[in-house]
Design goal:
- InterPro entries: Galactose-bd-like_sf (IPR008979).
- With 230 residues, the protein is mainly β.
- The chain folds into two domains: 87 residues, Hepatocyte Growth Factor; 124 residues, Galactose-binding domain-like (Jelly Rolls).
- It has two helices and 15 strands.
- Strands 7, 10, 11, 12, 13 and 15 form a six-stranded antiparallel sheet that branches. A five-stranded antiparallel sheet has the order 1-6-3-4-2.
- The longest helix is centred in the first third of the chain and has 9 residues.
- It is globular.
Length: 230
């Protein structure tokens, strides 16, 4: 398989840029190379060889290759517009149905900085405490995303950290009474990082709900909902 095919099949070019102050794994300077530049394909290869890498960015003139563990979607505007020429993500999906302008309802956040809207803003760094929903300790906590219309999903990508994503019931359907919607998954044990939930067969609905059914806090950093392949 050629490098071009690997790049196309694995990475999606994103419109924004990660925060250079957080979640950076490494920085490779072109001055250390005989040609004096680092190609996009070479930078992609460095990301693929690092298990923690989710984003790679190249600077103008291909003089620098930076790797990040940041999880971003194609919709996040991002940081560092003057620092990079382009960035590519292996976590972002170009057909993600969740966008930052959707309506989100949630149980009470731990603080105003950790509100439910943070789960659809398109940005997540496990070392950066902002840009995530963290609830209070409570008997039940929930997060509900209204797509605004009926959609069909085949996969969920949910980024969560710190061991607070457990005992989570996930429902999806067209009823505003979320208890009657289809249960598509239950996450029992503590789960950290990139959680992939495959919906077989694909489900149709408008409301996606994550509900914690036992006492404790709930942490969700970012979400994507992927439609079936055409």
């Amino acid at each position: 398989m050629t490098t071009a095919v690997v790049l196309k099949d694995t990475f999606v070019k994103i419109g924004g840029y990660p925060d250079p102050s957080w979640c950076k794994l490494s920085s490779d300077q072109a001055a250390d190379h005989q040609r004096g530049e680092i190609t996009v394909a070479e930078c992609a290869g460095k990301c693929l060889s690092n298990a923690a890498c989710r984003i790679f960015c190249v600077s103008p003139g291909l003089t620098m290759c930076d790797l990040y563990s940041t999880l971003m979607t194609v919709d996040f505007i991002g940081f560092g517009a003057n620092l990079y020429q382009s960035c590519y993500s292996s976590w972002a999906h170009k057909f993600n149905l969740i966008t930052p302008n959707m309506t989100v309802m949630s149980s009470a956040p731990f603080s105003p900085n950790f509100k439910g809207l943070m789960t659809i803003d398109g940005y997540c760094c496990d070392f950066e405490m902002g840009y995530r929903f963290i609830s209070n300790n409570a008997p039940t906590n929930f997060l509900n995303v209204d797509f605004g219309k009926v959609v069909t999903i085949e996969e969920l990508r949910i980024a969560a950290f710190y061991g607070y994503f457990q005992g989570i019931e996930i429902r999806f359907g067209s009823s505003s009474n979320i208890a009657t919607n289809l249960q598509i998954s239950v996450v029992y044990g503590a789960s950290n990082g990139d959680n992939r939930i495959y919906v077989k067969p694909p489900a149709t609905g408008r409301y996606l709900t994550l509900k914690k059914n036992d006492y404790g806090a709930m942490d969700v950093c970012e979400m994507q909902a992927i439609p079936p392949k055409l």
